[in-house]
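Inputs:
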Amino acid sequence: MDEKEFLRSLLARLGAEENDVVYADGLALKIDGAAAATSKLPFQTWRDFGWRNVAAAYSDVRVKYVEPLYMLVSVTAPRLEEAAEVIEGVREAAERLSLRYVGGDLNQGGDVVVDVAIVGRAGPRIGRVPKPGDVLVTIPAYGYTGLAYRFWGERHPAVERGVAMLKRPEPLWPLPPPECVTASMDSSDGLGDVLWTMAKGVDIVVKRLPAPREVLELAEERGVEVGEVVFNGGEEFLPVFAVRRGCGVGEPYVEFAEAVEGEGRVVWENRELRWRGWSYFRRT
Amino acid sequence: MDEKEFLRSLLARLGAEENDVVYADGLALKIDGAAAATSKLPFQTWRDFGWRNVAAAYSDVRVKYVEPLYMLVSVTAPRLEEAAEVIEGVREAAERLSLRYVGGDLNQGGDVVVDVAIVGRAGPRIGRVPKPGDVLVTIPAYGYTGLAYRFWGERHPAVERGVAMLKRPEPLWPLPPPECVTASMDSSDGLGDVLWTMAKGVDIVVKRLPAPREVLELAEERGVEVGEVVFNGGEEFLPVFAVRRGCGVGEPYVEFAEAVEGEGRVVWENRELRWRGWSYFRRT
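Outputs:
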């Protein structure tokens, strides 16, 4: 069992819906965190790590058209120096993303952990699962982070862009008209994870890779499988929207996949997609 | 600088009020957490630790007369086994305390960290600082936890009661009539911390120790300073209310201190109280 299966079973016991936000009487609630031991990248500063965790929570509420009202942040750290830097990054992200950071908690512990809670006003209620016939659109900027994880010391423009995305993610993408959208998710654990999560009771067929040429070229040049970089990257904080067919969604979005009748498979190049993004506590 | 001074300076920068809950447009918000490395007691199971963190957050909102609506919990743990036990304890506490546990997050990390966010409906807005002339009331059950920290292996009734309080705190105390209350706090970091925090712009004079005879006797018998056990215990999750003089507040509450004109001192036995409860990141 990995953490997603565990959370699924827990949500079922709580009688709660599986979604990226919790809807409750006109509010939408989100708590999202990460620990440095497993999630801080070697090139991230403590400020970056604070920023990243705010952006991750914000990305989840934005992709659901939630209007964020208040943010609370709890920080755990071994030393006050690290905590202070993390909180400074939280503050910077709050400013950049127009979040009202109203308070939090600070505790001493054996790892640096940042938990971000956002309380927002719910918009239209949007789930994770598209309907057969829907088209999947996203912003075609996958692969940068996947390359950055591997080659972050290098001075290649695609790598540098990936590093910048990972240090200071800014999930401020425009939103398609809400009446077009039937389901949505943001990519935090990789596009493969998004697609496999969305493919419940429908199949999703990937038509083209939502990645720019410089990414595809660099991956090929370095002998990294393109699918690995595009589907198994993670931390892109890019949105995937399922939209009704015929609902034209313009730039920066591109159509890259479609939902069809099926039993929950993700298909690419006529085969089941073997990249599933990543998950904690996975035993393989 | 300890974590309280740091949080104070941060709240000042955020323009936020120093209080145990954040008030926002009719809502009251709370996030509260702890890490096992610094806060889990040797006799607590992982379930106890999960329970304790829910009770700690709940205690803060209850003492402010907030009606809790929703709870989100983020759990970090090195292994899924520990996380599952912690979450089970969270569930048990939610049931016991009538909290609606609507969802959360689960992450892998180097320490077990539990962050609990509660969204509630605000009642009357209650701060931390009493007015001169107010009387301080509490439930006279201090000292049990202070003894339990020291003697938890022993089979003494006062120690066993302290251990039970620490394993499964149940902050379900009755609430005084809200129109009587001018300020409130709960004791999580010790009664000394509560009193020093409340004493801002007023002095607080302690008249009697809110501790039962069995506690005072055991402390004396073991040569532990009574003040140390009563003021520096912590994790009692007992409420302290400042009430208008003449507002009779009945059982289980007792009057134990009063607020008088002053400059922020806590006085006991004609001297400044030297116990200040505890704080993380303190350098002495």
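Remarks. The longest strand of chain A covers residues 67-77. Chain A touches chain B through 54 residues (CB under 8 Å).
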